[in-house]
Design brief:
- By secondary structure, the protein is of the alpha/beta class.
- The chain has one domain: Rossmann fold.
- Helix content is 48%, strand content 13%.
- The protein is built from 9 helices and 7 strands, in the order E-H-E-E-H-E-H-H-E-H-E-H-H-E-H-H.
- The relative contact order is 0.14.
């Protein structure tokens, strides 16, 4: 019997690429989407899931288990980006960012662990980001969710090993997806940030266009799912590998100047 994998946020971008690659490699794939009418996509089944809702998460996982009788791996990918200065982001908006990007991962993971513990094996793969290793201006709360995911995944790696469950974190740099186009902005913007926010958003969009293909991230996930002893962290793309090293090695003022230059923070206008 083929291994069963649940992939959140599988309707587009990284999640869709992962679902298609795993399905083509013989896995029984269940993808999820927030759509009210999910459909079968390229041979794998799509389920409706709101990662912000415990009831929705429980129902989704139970549907997978009822259909397959097993759940060998979960790929926590669902999330969204919020672009705005920390000051202009309300606490409600910041909490919503955490509910999806961080606590959504926690809810789904908690829901799948009983079945994995019972089986004595499993893979939990969380999609992190370069933004969890270094902060990007005007995405402070998005980065905060990815920094939190770093700690949660590392602690879980220790805690779940005795049960035969391996936890991994995928850390890509910028990826060519529609995420920047679908990014949200705070409801109450402050005009003092308008110019810098606009320049930063444009720089992020350019970085996304120049980023790695989502298929490269999918190939990394496939390696982690197949490995007998998956690594805790997998960095994807050159930027994800060398930028954190530069940040750790360079004097802070030198590195910060490079970030300000990259995102045109010191430009006039």
């Amino acid at each position: 019997m083929s291994a069963t994998v649940l992939i959140t946020g599988a309707s587009s971008g990284i999640g869709a690429a992962v679902a298609q690659l795993l399905h083509s490699n013989g896995f029984t794939v269940f993808g999820t989407t927030r759509s009210a009418n999910p459909a079968k996509t390229n041979g794998f089944r799509m389920l409706r899931l709101e990662v912000d809702s415990e009831d929705s998460v429980r129902a989704c996982v139970q549907e997978v288990l009822s259909h397959s009788g097993r759940l060998d791996a979960v790929v926590n990918n669902a999330g969204f980006a919020l672009i705005g200065a920390a000051e202009e982001t309300s606490l409600a908006e910041a909490k919503e960012q955490f509910e999806t990007n961080f606590f959504g991962v926690v809810r789904v993971t908690d829901a799948v662990l009983p079945a994995m513990r019972k089986a004595g094996s499993g893979r939990v793969i969380n999609i992190g980001s370069l933004a969890g290793l270094m902060a990007i201006p005007f995405t402070g709360f998005y980065c905060a969710t990815k920094f939190a995911l770093e700690a949660y995944t590392e602690a879980s790696w220790y805690e779940l090993r005795p049960f035969g469950i391996w936890v991994s974190l995928i850390e890509p740099g910028f990826v060519r997806t529609g995420m920047s186009r679908s990014s949200r902005i705070p409801a109450q913007l402050l005009q003092e940030y308008d110019s810098a926010r606009t320049r930063t958003a444009a720089a992020v969009a350019r970085s996304v266009e120049d980023g790695v293909a989502p298929e490269l991230v999918a190939e990394t996930v496939l390696r982690a799912v197949r490995s007998r002893r998956p690594k805790l962290r997998y960095r994807v793309g050159a930027a994800a590998r060398w930028l954190p090293r530069v940040r750790n090695a360079a004097p802070w003022n030198v590195f910060a100047a490079g970030v300000r230059r990259t995102f045109a923070l010191d430009a006039g206008g």
